[in-house]
Amino acid sequence: MRYMFFYDETEHSRKINYQTVISSNYYDNFITAIVGWSSEEDANISEKYLAFEEKYDYRKKNGELKSQTMKAKDFTLGFASLNKHTIEFYEDLISLFDSRIIVYFSVFSKIEYVINQLFVDYHNSMIVDVDYMKYSIIKAINVYRPQKVIEAIYKDPYTFVKELRLFLEEQISKNQASIPLKERESKAFEDILFLLEDVELPKSLEWIYFPSFDGFKKLLIEMNINDYKLLIDREGVASNTLNSAMLVGLENVTEEDSRNYVGIRMADMLAGLISKLMQSLKVSLNGDYKDGKIEKTLLDSGWFVLSERQLDLYKKLYKVICENNDYWYKTYAGIYADNLVSFIALLQYMNHFKNVDEIRKGKLEMQPEYYNAYVCESLQERYRIMRNKLPLDPLPDDGKDFFCNQRGAKVYKDIDKQPMLPLYEGQNKYYVWSVGFAKNGVPLVTISDNDKLICYRLPNEYKEWAMATVGLANRGENYFPEEVLFSLIDGRYYVDIL
Hints:
This is DUF3800 domain-containing protein. By secondary structure, the chain is an alpha+beta fold. The chain has three domains: about 290 residues, no CATH class; about 80 residues, no CATH class; about 100 residues, no CATH class. The chain is built from 16 helices and 14 strands.
């Protein structure tokens, strides 16, 4: 079966320089979207979208309905800001993305690209977690916006290390008044100061597109799609986007005029919607850290003053982003993905409400606190995965309901089918060959049983232990194969590697 895919992006800076970063409308995330479907569905999907465009003909500019029609003021409080006139437009738009349409989008920090170039010669080791170091720098620059550091990056890279050192030292000093709230941040900054000895200076700071296409290539592998065509919105003479797609190994890629292809316009609208909602969320959660004060930043409670239509719109977008075509590489991000995590968490949080009455019964004024706790939990999970360097391999969609892990044990794609490790009251000794995770974070263990390797699920109580062992293995300390004692005593779970 042949597939057709269409690419567009938003928040694109053709050239990253100091003026770009300090401009009032600067947004750090570069967002790309790719939509696609089987060629046999093309006529029907195109017909539906053309009808949508005809209905909203008055929104067109220069003959095209583009994402520029979406206004930031419409999302000041998320979907709660949409009035009865604008909400219908977004209801109609989101309803177009049904289960036939494959959706992929990526979110990358522009500052991250710069930091990656500056630290190109730094690599992870058993002693140094360079990814976490980069994450800490990117987050600090995005949160605190240290002017001298930003100026150094773009105006005088040779002074960057000096300015970064001064900023980190100053921030560590300010954090002394906020221990333990800023204890982890200070420790990260101290580690960075210890490692900052030299830096690779970039030759240029022009944006590259490889990461977003790298994620899409992984999605194609995961979906076992080999027969496809990718159409990219034509950007001009340089064709940087097209060249990047081909350099990562994508085939049958061409640049086309969006006026001639519904799919490119759909990708533009999807990227625009995601971007507008993410920007509004970031603005609402931005604190003022210039004076070094530590204050919790919560969403305005107005975000949760929703009508049934507005809540239903969140649910519809949740279905498109989180449920339809649920593949691991449906979304792709860099090291710094806090904004993406907050966005996904917002959709998940809104989706869990049955109706608006349930929101009100949960005390409207407390909803920002509840959402904040949910986001923090999601960020903590992302942080654990990043620190432990859990390798993720795409699984081909080969029609089978299972695959074999590296030890040769059967692992079901529907993890609910995976048997649970038999644990009885008292001590349970097993010979463990490996520990890992399913894609939804369920801990797994592969053991030998009568000379046969079997993969079992572990109770969630062992998740922290599993994450720690995976992290150690990726730093060069692999304890397995080895005998492991799993103990269940009075409802409490214990584990010892013998």
